[in-house]
Specification:
- The protein is an alpha+beta fold and 420 residues long.
- 35% of the residues lie in helices and 18% in strands.
- Among the domains are: 72 residues, no CATH class; 70 residues, K homology (KH) domain (GMP Synthetase, Chain A, domain 3, 2-Layer Sandwich); 63 residues, no CATH class; 52 residues, SH3 type barrels (Roll), CATH 2.30.30.
- The strands form 3 sheets. The protein has a 5-stranded antiparallel sheet.
- The longest helix is centred in the C-terminal third of the chain and has 23 residues.
Length: 420
């Protein structure tokens, strides 16, 4: 239940005129109460304080201070000079916070155990939440029930089971949804868990006045009841519907009875349907009154005095069909493919022989001289009586490299014995 403090920077005329009452929230904002600040300390929003509880103390968070507290007290009907108002004891110490955490950790087990006990006693009720006091001396059991429940025996069992002072408090389905919290279909936090404190009854007539379809799944909230937001704009619709005539649900024309479908309060039109067609006919308020007076006199008009409905929304221009055939020729695609292939071939050549392209024309001349040098070497070897190397893959000796004599002797073929 968050509230924006829009009176925070309001100048105070005097210390005596300042508000000494502080609003403190408990259990993550699900419950709030007013406490009198009798200490000399100044508290700000968000401070943890220890306050008076039932035969002990409780720990809560400061939610509002200053002049806006007086407005909240006036809204809830609380008086500032109430002698029964509890007081703030001190700022919460580390020991108080540790005790509070230990007792708050007992709440989930208490909910499960309390539901089992209520089921054993065959009581028609549902335990929604259990709130432990900070010092662990009191427990508040929130339950939901359709009617009155005799839980005198249940309180005795709870007191002996949990060793605390028991308080039973009945809540509705809307209050339970506010305690649980969640996100609504609008995409925002639930109103009952954020700012809404007064829950009013909502019926299906509110949906009918606003021309909403009676769809239970869409009109229901997470609590299973009709959404509270159906009452937000209901007064505006009721004021606008006062100008529409009453008892005009059926009009008699020559084609048959025309039945009322809906009322448009923004354009002051009433839509009717005829039995022979599913089309809806818009009629002005003056036209409906005229036909209704004729029917009362026994006159049946030939047709409804319909009007043309023009929307103020600008019409969207649809894109025209464009024929793109022939704008792209195949020759241009072929030329681009050829250029791409040539570039790929050039890149491959640069990757295989980068050193040869850097040297330019000098290396091309050297490539032409290499086969001549190899021929000269082979001729010199044949003149000396040496045969070329029969091994494949063995590179020939270049002029700069002198052959190893031992290797040459090993490679010579053996001489035949008949020539000795």
């Amino acid at each position: 239940m968050n509230t924006y403090d829009w009176l925070r920077n309001l100048p105070i005329p005097g210390v005596d005129m300042a508000c000494n009452v502080i609003e403190v929230s408990f259990n993550k904002g699900s419950r709030k109460d007013f406490f009198r600040n009798t200490t000399l300390q100044h508290f700000d929003k968000g401070d943890m304080v220890s306050v008076e509880g039932v035969s002990g103390f409780d720990v809560g968070e400061v939610s509002l201070t200053g002049e806006i507290v007086r407005l909240q007290m006036k809204k809830r009907g609380a008086k500032e000079d109430n002698p029964e108002m509890k007081k703030i004891l001190r700022p919460a110490t580390d020991r108080d916070l540790d005790i509070m955490r230990q007792n708050k950790a007992r709440e989930p087990e208490a909910v499960i155990r309390s539901r089992a006990i209520a089921k054993q006693l065959k009581l028609d009720m549902k335990i929604s939440q259990v709130e432990m006091q900070a010092d662990g001396r009191k427990a508040t059991f929130f339950y939901i029930a359709d009617g009155r429940v005799d839980f005198r025996e249940l309180i005795k069992v709870y007191a002996s089971e949990f060793k605390v002072k028991v308080e039973m408090r009945q809540i509705g389905a809307r209050q339970e949804a506010g305690k649980v919290g969640g996100v609504g279909s609008c995409g925002r936090e639930l109103c009952c868990s954020s700012w809404l404190t007064d829950f009013k009854s909502v019926n299906t007539a509110a949906a009918r006045y606003q021309n909403l379809s009676i769809n239970q799944s869409k009109l229901s909230g997470q609590c299973g009841r009709l959404k509270c937001c159906l009452n937000y704009e209901l007064d505006t619709y009721l004021d606008a519907l006062q100008h529409f005539p009453d008892n005009c649900d059926v009009l008699q024309v020559a084609k048959g009875n025309a039945y009322l479908i809906k009322k448009d309060i923004f354009k002051n039109l009433m839509w009717y349907t005829l039995p022979d067609s599913t089309k809806q006919y818009p009629v002005t308020i003056e036209g409906v009154r005229k036909i209704k007076s004729q029917n009362q006199q026994g006159i049946i008009p030939e047709a409804l005095e319909t009007v043309e409905v023009t929307s103020s929304k600008p019409k969207e221009v649809e894109p025209e069909f464009v024929d793109v055939v022939g704008q792209i020729s195949l020759r241009s695609l072929e030329k681009s493919d050829k250029k791409r292939r040539q570039q790929q071939q050039q890149q491959r050549g640069q990757g295989q022989r980068p050193q040869q392209r850097q040297a330019g024309g000098q290396q091309q001349g050297g490539q032409q001289q290499r086969p001549q040098q190899r021929n000269q070497q082979q001729g010199g070897q044949q003149q000396k009586g040496q045969q070329p190397n029969p091994q494949r893959g063995q590179r020939p000796n270049r002029p700069g490299n002198q052959p190893n004599p031992n290797q040459q002797n090993q490679q010579r073929p053996p001489k035949p014995e008949g020539n000795k």
